[in-house]
Each structure stands twice: as structure tokens, then as C-alpha cells.
Write a structure and sequence with these properties.
It is built from seven helices and eleven strands. It is α+β, with helices and mostly antiparallel strands and 279 residues long. The protein folds into two domains: 10-71, Herpes Virus-1 (2-Layer Sandwich), CATH 3.30.40; 78-260, Alpha-Beta Complex (Maf protein), CATH 3.90.950.10. Strands 4, 5, 6, 7, 8, 9, 10 and 11 form an eight-stranded mixed β-sheet that branches. It has a three-stranded antiparallel β-sheet with strand order 1-2-3, with no helix packed on it. β6 (136-145) and β7 form a beta hairpin.
Length: 279
């Protein structure tokens, strides 16, 4: 059953958004779902609008009319938890178009944990898996300055809000021009669902903090000059940045994991010494 308007809140746990588009209704529990909350691929959702086929939500698919468990008959979808649409766009550009129907993004409020990048990624991923009750992917990005012994690391976004990208260079030149080196780190955490183990995938790119240059990219891209290059992230075109970035290296490790998992269609990545699966 479908409708263009409904005043009923979305039945997907963790979803807080009103309906501004077509909703799909579970034929069993009568719950209303956004297209992206239905766990249907865009193609499958479009097909459901064109047919009279009854659709059941994930919870109702777990049990048949007698109460016995059944296997869900739906595509496997990973919820990429992020409030930044640029991250999902860049992730799909790196992974390739064959992954475009595997991921959907959802912005949920994640607690601000403290610890190492790995500890924070694990805690956020576990929390997201509890909220979504399904496969989730969480990313934690850090920028550590050598002069500050790796700080701010995973707390970089608070530094960015406080002083801006131009403030990073001003801060570090006080330690001397030779002390402007930094490490950009991207850590992806994947969990198959509530109570499942978390797998980590990490990539690191070394570089130097310079005065901001360039207008593309986002965040601190304008002030990060990758080692061996004359252009900052923000001066590079997407293809160049996506071939050397810390996110690219972490996604290489994630892609290898997807390759080795039978439910994910993919192609193996080229080897990289800067990408690694941590768990």
C-alpha cells in the first residue's frame, strides 16, 4: 500500500523526519515508512509503486503467520550514519557505482564519545546499530599534528569550529616551519546489527598544514597538503583526491571486506600499504 501523504510518524526506529514524499505501508503491522527507511533499493521501491504487491517491514518479515521465524526477502542495505552528504557522495565516488544501491544515509544523533579514534568509532557504531537495528557504517575522521603529539586527532571538528582552517597554520608555525606535519586518519566502523561485533577499517595520509588554498572539498581540505604533492586537498580535482586520501585508503580495506562477504557484489581493490582492517 502506498500514499503520498500521511500524518503518521515513520515506524523506522531512530527516524525523526516528517513525511514529505511518498510513504510505503507494511501490509502486516500497517506502519508507515519513508522510501529510504523501508530497506528497499530505489529500484525495488519504484517497482512496488507500480504493482499491487504487498510489502512487509523488516520486523514483520522475521515471523510468519504462525509466529515462526522466516528469512527476509529483501536487498541487503547498509545505513551510512552521517550528517554530512559530502561524505556519502565521496564514499560512493571511491567505491564505484556498483555500490550505489548498497548504502543509504541517515542522520541520527550520536553521543560525543572520548578516547582514541578506534575506541570512538566502535562506540558510535554500536550505538548506531542499537538505534537502527540493522547493518550500519560509521566514519570517524581525525587530523593529528606532529607538533601536538597527535592532537587534536578525533577532536579536530571542534578545533575547526573554533579557529577555522586558517587557524591551524597559524597555530603550528609558532612551533617552527619544520613542525607543520600532520596525519589525516579515516576510520570506518561496520556492524551487521544489534549485538554483532564491530569491524574497523582505517586509512592514513601524511601531509603538511599550510595556509588555506583552494575552493573545493570541505572541512580542513584547504589547509592539508598531502606529502609528495603541490596541491592541497581543496585544490585537487575529485579524481586525484579520491586516489590518495585517507578516506580512499580506509575504503580500500572496507571494499576488501565487502568482496569477501557473499552478500555484497563488488570488485577487489588494488593493494595499499596505508590501508588496513583493524578488526
Amino acid at each position: 500500500m502506498r500514499s503520498r501523504e500521511t500524518s503518521t510518524p515513520c515506524a523506522r526506529k531512530g527516524c525523526k523526519y516528517p513525511f514529505t514524499e511518498e510513504a510505503i505501508f507494511c501490509s502486516a503491522c500497517k506502519g508507515s515508512y519513508h522510501p529510504t527507511c523501508s530497506d528497499l533499493t530505489p529500484e525495488a521501491f519504484k517497482l512496488s509503486l507500480q504493482t499491487a504487491h504487498a510489502w512487509k517491514c523488516e520486523n514483520c518479515l522475521k515471523f510468519d503467520a504462525t509466529g515462526d521465524p522466516v528469512q527476509p526477502n529483501k536487498s541487503y542495505i547498509i545505513t551510512y550514519v552521517t550528517s554530512n552528504p559530502n561524505k556519502l557522495r565521496e564514499t560512493l565516488e571511491i567505491l564505484g557505482e556498483q555500490y550505489s544501491t548498497l548504502f543509504k544515509s541517515l542522520d541520527i544523533d550520536l553521543p560525543e564519545y572520548q578516547g582514541t579514534a578506534e575506541e570512538i568509532a566502535i562506540l558510535k557504531c554500536r550505538f548506531a546499530a542499537e538505534q537502527i537495528d540493522g547493518p550500519v557504517l560509521v566514519e570517524d575522521t581525525g587530523l593529528g599534528f606532529d607538533a601536538l603529539k597527535g592532537l587534536p586527532g578525533p577532536y579536530i571538528k571542534w578545533f575547526l569550529k573554533a579557529v577555522g582552517a586558517e587557524g591551524f597554520h597559524k597555530m603550528l608555525v609558532g612551533f617552527g616551519a619544520e613542525n607543520t606535519m600532520a596525519a589525516a586518519t579515516c576510520t570506518f566502523a561496520f556492524c551487521a546489527g544489534r549485538g554483532q561485533p564491530v569491524s574497523l577499517f582505517q586509512g592514513v595520509t601524511r601531509g603538511r598544514i599550510v595556509e588555506p588554498r583552494g575552493s573545493s572539498g570541505f572541512g580542513w581540505d584547504p589547509c592539508f597538503l598531502p606529502e609528495g604533492y603541490q596541491s592541497t586537498y581543496a585544490e585537487m580535482d575529485n579524481a586525484t583526491k579520491n586516489a590518495i586520501s585517507h578516506r580512499f585508503k580506509a575504503l580500500q580495506a572496507l571494499r576488501q571486506f565487502l568482496v569477501e562477504s557473499p552478500q555484497f557484489p563488488s570488485q577487489p581493490p588494488p593493494p595499499s600499504s596505508d590501508s588496513r582492517r583493524l578488526s
